[in-house]
Amino acid sequence: MNQAAPNFKFVEYLRAVRLSQPRIKFEAKELKFELLRRVTQAERDWVVSDRFLKSDVWIRLRYDVREADEDGCCKACGSARKLNVDHKYNRRDFPQRALLRSNLQLLCAECNKGKGNRYNTDWEKRRRRPQATAPDYTPPDAIMAEALKIAPHWNPGELLTAYRRFRARKSGEAVRYPDKAFIGWVKKCAKDHPR
Fold it and tell me: Looking at the structure, do residues 27 and 120 belong to the same domain, yes or no?
């Protein structure tokens, strides 16, 4: 059985935004005030209780977080098993942020249990994901000159075409430093296939 939320202003904001087409825009001052104000004991008790976890607004928000996540994996360890929606800033100490979308992240059950209420870790900021090198990667002139020093007998066009074919086959792999990856590939090719 779903529980109704007390008169918690941010819950009302969230419901209004959810139900309106187009979305209602709230004043930044209004939202800032809501996030900084002191909450009542009744609001704090509700946010920390199991009634919060069974409330309609939390169930819908939790589903939205899971649906919106592109990776569908734990932000801390990368696991895709037993995912929980975690509060970056815990509900007990920061009840105003309990329903704030930007305060939520996906963590697996183990990472969520390990984090608990002890840490306020935002894994999105902490873990910078490497960017995949596009198959149409073009190195800067300085990098291409360095590559041609390593493999002087290679034609620059053929070298680049071969590298792009190689990257296209590895399209699922992410590369943090594309220029270094290109130079590393050239070194390997020059060693394996001397001309």
Answer: yes
Other Cβ atoms less than 10 A from the Cβ of 193: the count is: 10
* Structural domain range at position 45: 9-126
Output the CA torsion sign for 101, 102, 108, 109. negative
134 inside domain: no
Residues 165 and 75 in one domain: no
In a domain, 25, yes or no: yes
Give mean pLDDT, residues 72-79.
81
CB-based burial, 39-65: b 16+ in 10 Å, e otherwise: beeebbebbbeebbeebebbeebeeeb
Total domains, the chain: 2
Contacts of 6 (CB under 8 A, 6+ apart): 42, 43, 46
Does 23 score more than 70 pLDDT? no
Q: Which of 16-30, 58-72, 98-112, 165-179 has the lowest mean pLDDT?
A: 16-30
